Amino acid sequence: MNLSSKRRGFLKRLMAGSVAALTQPLLVESAEAATHPGFLSDSPQVVDEAYWQTIKEQFAVPANLMMVNAANLCPRPQFITDLIRVTATSLEKDVSFQNRSQFEARRQLALEKLAQFIGVSSAEVGITRNTTESNNMLVNGLDFKAGDEIIIWDQNHPTNGLAWEQKAKRQGFTVKKVSIPAGFTTTQDLIAPFQQAITPKTRLITFSHISNSTGLMLPAKELCQLASSRGILTLVDGAQSFGFMELDLKTMGCDFYTASTHKWLMGPLENGILFSKKEHLAKLWPSVIGVGWHDDTQTVDKKICLLGQRNDPTTSALPAILDFHEKIGRKTIEDRVRHLTLYLKESIQKQIPQASFITPLSAQMSGGIVTVSIPGKPSADLFQKLYSDYGIACASVGNLRISPHIYNTHSDLDKLVKALVTLSS
Ligand SMILES: Cc1ncc(COP(=O)(O)O)c(C=O)c1O
C-alpha cells in the first residue's frame, strides 16, 4: 500500500508514543486525515480492472489467501484498521473525560452519514453492536398480545426467526412462517405466499431482504407496500443488502431495518444499525436503559442504543468507511459486485455443468451471494478443502456459499472456479 510520507511519519510517531504526538489529545479528525488513502480524494475517472486492482491493494489480505465470504464478515480497507488502531492507541494513553468528549461528536457524525446513506433522518437511526442485537431489540421492544399474528419468512436468520418464536411463547401471539414454493419465476410468485398468510390479525411482516442461505432477494418495496396498505408493520433484515446495494429506505417504505457494518460495508467490527420510522419511536420499548436515558427522548439512538460505555474507536471509523463507499460510488460498488457474481455463475455453469444453483440466476432476484451445490460433493468438504488446499475462504450453509466483494478480481474468481473443477472431479 502507498502511504504518503506524512502519513507514515504520523503513524510511526504515534505508535512509538513520542511526546510530540501525545502531549495534545489526538483528534480523530487528525487521525482520519493522516490515515486517509490519497487516491480516494477524487471519485474514479475510469473504472476498469486496473482500478479494482488498486482497490484490492487497500486490503491486508495476503496473496495466498482469498476472501469470498462477504455475507459473513468482510476484511476492512487497511486505512480503516489504521484509523481504529491509532484512535484506540490514543485512547489507551488518555482515557480522560476530556479526551473522550470528542467521541460524542463522532457518533453524531456517524449517525448523520448513516442516515444519509440509507435515505432517512439521523433521529431515525441508532448504532447497535450488530444485526443480531438490532433484530432482538425490535423483537423485545415491540408489544404484541395474544390474538395478534406476525408473519416471518422461513429463510429468516435465527435472530429474526427463532427470536420471534421465543417471544411469542412468552406473550402468546402467533408466528406464521411463510415458504416460497420452488419454481418461482415472477415477483408476484415471491409476494403471493406473504399475501396469502395475511389475516385481519396480522400486525407485522418480517423478512431478510436477501437470504443469507439461498441468496434469494425478496421484492422489499412491493412487500412493504402490501403490508402498509393493510396497516401492517414491516421489519426488513438488511444484513445482506446494507453496503452492497444502493438503498433508500424511504422509497422501500419499511418501518424498521437492521444491518451490521462489518459485512458488505467493510467497516468496523461490532457496529450495527437499527432504523425505525420516527412515528414508531413512542411504541418501541428499550431493552436496556443506560445513563442519560429519558422517557421522552426523540431519537432511536438515545432511546434504544444507550448501552453504557461503548467501543468508541470503532464507531469513530464509521464516517470514514461511509466516505469510502461514496467516493467509489455506491452504484459502482453494487454494479461491480453484481458483475462479479454473474461472472462467477457463468464460469461455474460453463466449467462445472453438473452444479446446480440454489441462488436464482436472475439479478432481479439475487444480490452478492452465490449458493451452489455439486452432486456427490458435500458442501462441508468443499468448504474445508477450498480453505486448506487453496486458501479460499467461503462458507458452507447446507450448500456452498460464495460471496465476493470489490476486493476480489476476475483472476480470483478464475482461481476459485479452477479449484472447484478439481475438487468436483
Ligand atoms: C440475514 C442476517 N441477519 C442477521 C445476521 C446476524 O449478523 P451479525 O452476526 O452481524 O449480528 C446475519 C449474519 O450473517 C444475516 O445474514
From TrEMBL:
So which residues are the signal peptide here? none
Q: Which UniProt keywords are present, listed alphabetically?
A: Aminotransferase, Pyridoxal phosphate, Transferase
In Pfam terms, one family for this protein is Aminotran_5
Q: Does the keyword Transferase apply?
A: yes
Extract the SUPFAM superfamilies matched here: PLP-dependent transferases
Please give one Gene Ontology molecular function term for this protein: transaminase activity
User: The Aminotransferase class V domain covers which part of the protein?
Assistant: 104-416
Question: PROSITE patterns of this UniProt entry?
Answer: TAT
- Recorded protein name is Aminotransferase class V-fold PLP-dependent enzyme
